[in-house]
Amino acid sequence: MHKRRLGSQGLEVGAVGLGCMGMSDFYGPRDEAESIATIHRALELGVTLLDTADVYGPHTNEELLARALKGRPRDSFVLATKFGMVRGSDPGTRGVSGRPEYVRACCDASLKRLGLDTIDLYYQHRVDPKTPIEETVGAMAELLRAGKVRHLGLSEASPATLRRAHAVHPISALQSELSLWTREPETGALAACRALGVGFVAYSPLGRGFLTGRFQSPRDLSSDDWRHSSPRFQPGNFEANLALAKQVGELAAKAGCTASQLALAWVLRRGDDVVPIPGTKRVRYLEENLRAAELRLSDADLSRLDELFPIGAARGERYGENASALIDR
User: Fold this and answer.
1) Most buried of the four, 23, 178, 279, 308, by CB within 10 Å?
2) Catalytic choice (56, 122, 123, 203)
């Protein structure tokens, strides 16, 4: 797989990464053996960037990755994890913290769970409005100087916050949602990244699975799937978004690929500084997704996708009210 550079501090990763959240949380039933097989197959196929967070599980996703990576050469993967999202006993309740002492404690806890000496890319998961970003990134920079992390990142940070953070210490990557049905980063975040020399990591590049064409009804989701609470999966919104997804499938059929491959190829064409991290917990979907890196979209295909999916095309907000409140705007 071709490599892409994230930021100007020397971090290189495979052009497509692997989001590991769904292996432990949020997206229905879990199968540890299949998840570990998926991670191993990803590494065999040239994936290097593995994405997790302390809040996934909570904690169990980092522990799963530790088991999957045990005995693997340390230079064969780039491990990215996150801190900053505080999860209570109510799974629908979230908080954030960027306090320096919290940053340090979270890093030590993640290192222990992962069984690593160093985290390759350490993100602030959500910006804490009560703690100046300068204090949070200052604490993250201390971790870097101590050798506990190699590169710093932010997730869902606004361009203004990114600029303030980057002035304290170079940021290697901004992770935010980007897909055919979430194009808002094109209105400012991507430009800010490029002006500063920051890479962009695109999560949910398949629209939380909707753009794959695998869901025809909310009943296709297991009862414990988080997407039942997502506005875009609600009645009315679901049907409108399904019409969009069907058009992706039709265009993909004409291009001789799957809907997933077409949607991922579109994200990859946003620029060589953009690395999508589609999440999957099954080997067959992983292999399908990675073939998108070989797909060459024509100008006509790109124009048609832009026409079908202008900014704001998806019906419904990305998150419900509580999670939306945590987004730095």
Assistant:
1) 23
2) 56
